[in-house]
């Protein structure tokens, strides 16, 4: 029996799950795979699976997609499908095989999942905890693409926390999912060198693209069981955590060194972003407080020639902000309140001689 409409937000008929379930009988050469993902960044994994499943020699078929339920977005808070759900619809994936449970442990959802006879589940930034009852369903297990070198940076924000820490190397891991968060045996991984410019959204996209390639390469061994035999247990004593970002972390403090601030700007790019308070001193000496979103920064390599104290100057193409440890941060791109993002030069010109200071 199909789940109620509250779970199946895109359900439009009552036969698709039965059809997908019988596919394992009528199409013995293809194994049923279920993909779980929600944000836009995991759409690249979905694309890789869809493209591979449609190849003539594919060993699997995409039986269903599981994603977060529609949520209110935009000014009107209109209910919109998750980015992965919308991407699947745009690619022509049957809407009645897009499952959107509130929680992955709901019995109605689990009953539908069992009806699909999935041999393998693949997750990529799904965003829901998978209970034991879920993990017991696919005989080949559930594997996750995690954008870090496990056991480092387990948790919801591995890329953001790694950039915030100023790492110079990270990677992506393909690992079996177990009940403990991001703690399963690692099937494969790939290292990636990280420069001091890349921001979290770009690095996330890069790592999930690499993860998709690893997944497709390892699928045959995952299906035949040899991947499980060769997977390497994690050294839990070396584990570090990457907790979810909070909106109240977005404020910058210039009593830290410029490198620390720059790494935070890169890490928090996208959501929640970073912001700081400044004083604009008008021609009559009256101060006005501005809360400005900081979009792109650099660590200045110059020293000695700049003002000290709380004064902010402009040189080249950037605002020069004094920070702790006699370091200077270059703000290259910013967004004043009520305006679009702009270059530091355009912002400086708009001050028309007014002074800019730290608050």
From TrEMBL:
GO molecular function terms noted in the UniProt entry: methionyl-tRNA formyltransferase activity
Entry's EC annotation: 2.1.2.9
Keyword Protein biosynthesis: yes
Top-level EC class: transferase
Gene3D superfamilies, per database record: Formyl transferase, C-terminal domain, Formyl transferase, N-terminal domain
Record keyword Cell wall biogenesis/degradation present: no
Keywords: Protein biosynthesis, Transferase
GO cellular component: mitochondrion
Formyl transferase C-terminal domain location: 244-351
Limits of the Formyl transferase N-terminal domain: 33-195
Record family assignment: Belongs to the Fmt family.
Name by which UniProt lists this protein: Methionyl-tRNA formyltransferase, mitochondrial
């Amino acid at each position: 029996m199909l789940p109620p409409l509250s779970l199946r937000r895109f359900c439009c008929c009552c036969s698709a799950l039965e059809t997908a379930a019988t596919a394992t009988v009528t199409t013995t050469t293809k194994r049923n795979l279920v993909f779980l993902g929600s944000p836009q960044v995991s759409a690249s994994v979905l694309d890789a699976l869809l493209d591979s499943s449609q190849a003539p020699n594919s060993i699997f078929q995409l039986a269903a997609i599981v994603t977060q339920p529609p949520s209110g977005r935009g000014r009107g808070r209109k209910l919109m499908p998750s980015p992965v759900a919308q991407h699947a619809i745009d690619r022509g994936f049957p809407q009645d095989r897009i499952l959107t449970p509130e929680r992955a442990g709901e019995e109605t959802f689990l009953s539908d999942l069992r009806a699909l006879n999935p041999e393998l589940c693949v997750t990529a930034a799904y965003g829901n905890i998978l209970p034991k009852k879920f993990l017991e369903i696919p005989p080949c297990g559930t594997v996750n693409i995690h954008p870090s070198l496990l056991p480092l940076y387990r948790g919801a924000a591995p890329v953001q926390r790694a950039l915030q820490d100023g790492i110079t190397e990270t990677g992506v891991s393909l690992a079996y999912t177990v009940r403990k968060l991001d703690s399963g045996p690692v099937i494969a991984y790939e290292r990636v060198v990280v420069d001091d410019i890349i921001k979290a959204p770009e690095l996330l996209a890069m790592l999930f693209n690499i993860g998709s390639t690893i997944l497709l390469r390892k699928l045959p061994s995952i299906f035949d069981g040899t991947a499980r035999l060769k997977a390497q247990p994690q050294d839990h004593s070396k584990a570090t955590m990457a907790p979810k970002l909070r909106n109240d972390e977005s404020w910058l403090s210039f009593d830290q060194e410029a490198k620390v601030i720059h790494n935070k700007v890169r890490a928090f790019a996208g959501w929640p972003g970073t912001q700081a308070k400044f004083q604009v001193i008008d021609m009559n000496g009256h101060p006005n407080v501005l809360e400005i979103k900081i979009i792109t920064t650099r660590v200045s390599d110059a020293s000695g020639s700049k003002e000290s104290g709380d004064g902010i100057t402009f040189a080249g193409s950037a605002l020069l902000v004094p920070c702790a440890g006699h370091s200077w941060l270059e703000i290259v791109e910013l967004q004043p309140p009520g305006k679009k993002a702009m270059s530091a030069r355009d912002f400086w010109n708009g001050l028309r001689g007014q002074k800019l200071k730290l608050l």
